[in-house]
Automatic annotation (TrEMBL):
Phylogenetic classification of the source organism: Bacteria, Pseudomonadati, Pseudomonadota, Betaproteobacteria, Rhodocyclales
Domain named Pyruvate phosphate dikinase AMP/ATP-binding: residues: 94-295
Membrane-spanning intervals of the chain: none
Protein name per UniProt: PEP/pyruvate-binding domain-containing protein
InterPro entries in UniProt: ATP_grasp_subdomain_1, PEP-util_enz_mobile_dom, PEP_util_AS, Phosphohistidine_dom_sf, PPDK_AMP/ATP-bd, Pyruvate_phosphate_dikinase
Pfam families (UniProt xref): PEP-utilizers, PPDK_N
Domain PEP-utilising enzyme mobile as annotated: residue spans: 431-511
Length: 540
């Protein structure tokens, strides 16, 4: 069943959506299901597996279980887990050959970063020695364990992530956490266990089965989180769709050497230019890239250090575009020089990129003229208008710094540091710029009210940056020169201090931050409009 066919099939009933499905490379597409049952993330995972692309094996609990989560018991997913264990020759909770899994959400439509993911489920005090023997990598094991305790504590136990960040800051002493050795990470894991006990009022669970059961319930529950509700409200999505949950064998980008994690777009999501747009971190897990709490660089280092991996990724990107017929937003892990694809979806993009990509895909023979016209039906000169700073605007603007661009355009407004300030400025009819330490999706309400987003940390491909781009907001991330002093409602850029209410201009076209209010000019991409018009006449 194709994705298009599944969209037009009769809506399945609740019982049909309460299903489980096993996915592994080379497996055929499961019959009788689609994205409405498996969620778009798992459905696309199944499509990648059917193309024999390198995806870790997994099982999926269908979207119907989101509505019936209170009834979900271990017995419902234990047979699927047993099949996954046989496929991997590993067992959850086995002290000698432990299976470690991720637990991921996935609605029938893409909702980047609005629901939760948990990694490294299955690590306990008793399985950790076995994992060290199997992997031969003590540092990897202790890094995965401390990540599990912090992630599980935040998502399942509801502990504020700042408590675990404080533990990390104490142990690393200013070092990059990726440079910590296994002894430091072992100390950090011990601190996290103490923090968990203190904040949760009970010990971190040392039963791998309990971890998995609670992780599945927590991911289903994240469908009802405030940020997920707000996202659905902004985009007119039904609360009844629910999310599926994917339980997938872990692969590890945090093992040092030729290991790392990345997120990318098969084409530039801002301009539509036909080249990959990838962020990658060596010795990292995927959440380091998409969470918005870490600054991430582009793909140049990956291409230079591991050219064979980069070529494998380029080959996979080409396969994905040919199979899906659209620009893809994908996540991947490299483990000891081996590429694994974790997910793909049609990438969110600007109107300009929408037009460029549709036209180029038609020229490349990947979509029909009719499909290209349909994808660009609502685009006209006004929708494609581009905003820039007037060339002669040199009065009143002071260059403050630069930062990677996640979404282009120009935004001017008063500095706000939180949702309350954004609400106040919006109510007063005053444009504002949201300034945050991290690019996090929990800021979606404030982001919706702002003209743009500026962050101290984060990646161009972090979930919040993806959402900002889709909302049409200018976005600059990972500005290392930025310091935020929340108690005094002020920020500092280089040697200058600004308070809430002062004006900033974000130039997302050039990746530049200015003090003051720019004079903005509007241009129209006439050549692109001419291409659209020629195609429309051809189809008419």
């Amino acid at each position: 069943m194709s994705g298009l066919a599944s969209r037009h099939a009769p809506e399945p009933g609740l019982e049909e959506r309460c299903t489980t499905c096993l996915i592994h490379p080379g497996s055929p597409l499961p019959e009788g299901v689609g994205a409405d049952i498996l969620g778009v993330k798992a459905w696309n995972l199944a499509r990648m597996a059917s193309l024999d692309l390198p995806v870790p094996p997994a099982f999926v609990l269908g979207t119907g279980w989101c509505e019936r989560a209170a009834e979900l018991a271990t017995a419902h997913w234990q047979p699927a887990l047993a099949r996954l264990e046989r496929l991997t020759a590993l067992r959850l909770g086995d002290p000698r050959h432990p299976l470690l899994v991720s637990v991921r959400s996935g609605a029938p439509v893409s909702m980047p970063g609005m629901m939760e993911t948990l990694l490294n489920i299955g690590l306990t005090d008793s399985t950790l020695p076995g994992f060290i023997r199997v992997s031969g990598h003590p540092r990897l094991a202790w890094d995965a364990y401390r990540r599990l305790i912090g992630g599980y504590g935040e998502v399942v136990a509801g502990i504020d992530a700042r408590h675990f960040e404080a533990d990390l800051d104490e142990v690393r002493g200013g070092q990059d956490e990726r440079s910590l050795d296994f002894a430091a990470l072992r100390t950090l894991a011990a601190r996290h266990l103490e923090t968990y006990r203190r904040e949760a009022g009970e010990a971190f669970p040392q039963d791998a089965g309990v971890q998995l059961e609670q992780a599945i319930k927590a991911v289903f529950a994240s469908w009802h989180a405030d940020k997920a509700r707000k996202y659905r409200s902004l985009h007119g999505l039904s609360d009844r769709m629910g999310t599926a949950v994917t339980v997938q064998r872990m692969v590890f980008g945090n093992g040092g050497g030729l290991s790392g994690a990345g997120v990318g777009f098969s084409r530039d999501p801002s301009s539509g230019e036909p080249h990959p747009w990838v962020d990658f971190l060596f010795n990292a897990q995927g959440e380091d890239v998409v969470s918005g709490r870490r600054s991430v660089l582009g793909h140049d280092q990956l291409a230079a250090v591991a050219p064979q991996v980069w070529q494998s990724l380029l080959h996979a990107i080409g396969t994905l575009e040919r199979a899906f017929g659209d620009m893809q937003d994908f996540e991947f892990t490299v483990q000891d020089g081996q590429l694994f694809l974790l997910q793909t979806r049609d990438g969110k993009r600007t109107p300009l990129a929408t037009a460029r990509i549709a036209l180029d895909l038609h020229d490349e023979g990947l979509i029909t003229a009719e499909e290209a016209v349909e994808r660009t039906r609502d685009l006209d000169a006004q929708a494609l208008a581009q905003h820039g700073i007037a060339a002669d605007d040199d009065a009143g603007l002071v260059l403050l710094g630069r930062a990677p661009t996640a979404a282009s355009g120009v935004a001017c407004g008063e500095i706000v540091l939180d949702e309350a300030a954004a609400n106040a400025r919006h109510a007063a009819g005053t444009p504002c710029i949201l300034v945050r330490q991290d690019a996090e999706t929990r800021d979606i309400t404030a982001l919706d009210l702002a003209e743009g987003l500026l962050t101290q940390r984060g990646a161009r491909t972090s979930h919040a940056a993806v959402v900002a781009r889709h909302l049409g907001k200018v976005c600059l991330v990972g500005c290392e020169a930025l310091q935020i002093d929340a108690p005094s409602h002020s920020i500092r850029l280089h040697d200058r201090t600004f308070r809430e209410g002062d004006y900033l201009t974000l130039d997302g076209n050039e990746g530049v931050i200015y003090a003051g209010r720019a004079r903005v000019v509007t241009t129209v991409p006439q050549a692109l409009l001419d291409r659209l018009e020629r195609l429309r006449r051809q189809v008419a």
